[in-house]
Amino acid sequence: MKEFALIFRLKDISDFRPSPEQMQERMNWLAGIASQNKLADKGNTLLPNTGSAKTVKRNNVVTDGAYTEIKEFISGYIVVKAETIDEAVEMAKANPIFDQVGGSIEVREVLKRD
Question: Could you report the per-residue pLDDT of 9-36, keeping only the tens digit for each?
Fold first, then answer.
């Protein structure tokens, strides 16, 4: 079985703090994946870019914040187990965030090194 990162992106900082009901829906979605033994890493929530992020570039150049040229920000991620990327996409499609606030979920295969 392969592992895939589901990377959560939001467009508006106000969407970062869900209501208790929205959070419960998201936790139920996550519990559903875990109950199938397909949750490889529960991931983490990342703070929005409010001075708590730095970007390191070539030649030891360090700038404040994440990539400011993009309109979305990464709010968190989880890692799931699936046979194919299509199966991981189906898991992502079921996330209640789409009905709650929009945003997007990027699905990327994790390179496992043995």
Answer: 877 666 667 788 888 888 898 899 999 9
Q: Please, what is the Cα angle at 25 between 2 and 33, to 5 degrees? A: 20
* Nearest in space to 82 (alpha carbons), one of 71, 94, 74: 94
The model carries a pTM of 0.76
Q: State pLDDT tens for residues 41-85.
A: 877 666 665 556 667 777 877 776 655 555 667 778 889 999 999
Beta strands in the chain (DSSP E): 2-10, 39-45, 54-57, 61-64, 73-82, 104-109
Helices (H), 1-114: 20-35, 85-93, 97-100
Sketch out the chain's domains with CATH numbers: 2-109 (3.30.70.1060)
The amino acid occupying position 85 is I
